[in-house]
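Support reply, case 0932

Customer input (verbatim):
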Amino acid sequence: MSSPAPYEGKLCCAICGDAILPPTQQRSEYEKWQTEAVLLSDPNREFELLEEHYRGGKKLDAQRINIPTTQEIRKDRAQIIDQDRLRIISNTEGADGDGEEVNANLSCGREENGEWVVTPYYIATHKACLEVAETAMRHSPHNIAVRDLRTLWKVLRMRFKVDDMYLMSSTVDFMASPQRIQLPHSYYMPFRLAPIMTGASSGELTDPKTERWEAAYPLHIPSLTSAVLQNLDSLPPATPAIPQAISFQKRFLALPPELRDHVCSFLASRNGMPGICNGLLPQWIWREVLLRGKCLPFLRDLDTAVVKTFCARWSHEHGAQEPNWELLVHKLSQEAWSIWDAESSSLKVPNGLRNRRRIWQLIEEMYVGDLVPVKRVTLARSNHVAVPRYWDERGEPIHPVVRVQAGSRNKLRSIIG
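Our regenerated output:
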């Protein structure tokens, strides 16, 4: 669980929940990736057109409308100027929108040639987090709801809609637009003390001397393969196979390779593999399971040359004793977050991998409408909050449109399920 206090007044990535930082010369190499933002927007304005047609779900007799989405969700690179204001940048000089200043997470418009033009609704993410998300959407072996960028957009847009409704119902005029959506799992971040408790300045999320694994660069991770393999030195050695296991292994290895691969594909588990190993498969099969990245797709970038060198060293030092590849794969697959929490981890892995796994998990769990109104206890009095539901959990249109109120999740699922 993360404390929301350090994020107040900061624009945060809509995917990972951590701050998007303004680029300054004082930024360390560790922080620079968090200054690279991407603004997502929908050129087709699907959400806005649904809002207009159904009047926010209040027009009960509205006919079904099918909105053609002929354009992809747009991705504009950007950098923060101030708070939630960003400047769009491009690799191509003179590109459309290059240099334009926009606000994130805000519906607004402007006057152009005597006409009122509604500006796009931009949702800000870290560039790296969006890349992790797109990889997860393509390669997750599980039955996840979000498989494309438009569905991801719908998830994030509906989350902001919930917070927008709280703002509109509030009696306090000075409340800021939502810059970090509060989610029940707190983005799987560890709880950290507020800066004032650690002696850090008020502008810092934590003590600057503390390396936050949840803020580590999740893409190109130095020495990733070596760091993962080092765990084999500390894991208990693989136990010799019992006669029944040897008999099973002979039958399994007699299968055609493509059939063996198909059998191994069922090892992927949404809840993680069990902590106990059964020894039914040879250790080298588990090594191949790890390297092929189908069961653990967040580790698709392991270096096979490094693995080959490790195996040669292991054979020289340990002889016939095999590394416990099965136990390593099991531990890497487990969803118990203590495995990935640096403070209480049973695995020694780079912080970048911990953060990648956290972001990957956030993508696998999300679905359209996953945030519903709850009864919030705040100092500001607010009226009744209800939000429309235009899509089912996988982003398919539903009709009639359902208005979701506090505590209505189960009722909604019975309607659209």
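We compared this against your earlier run and they match. Two observations from our side: Confidence is low (pLDDT under 50) at residues 167-175, 409-417. The first strand starts at residue 37 and ends at 41. Please reopen the case if you see a mismatch on your end.
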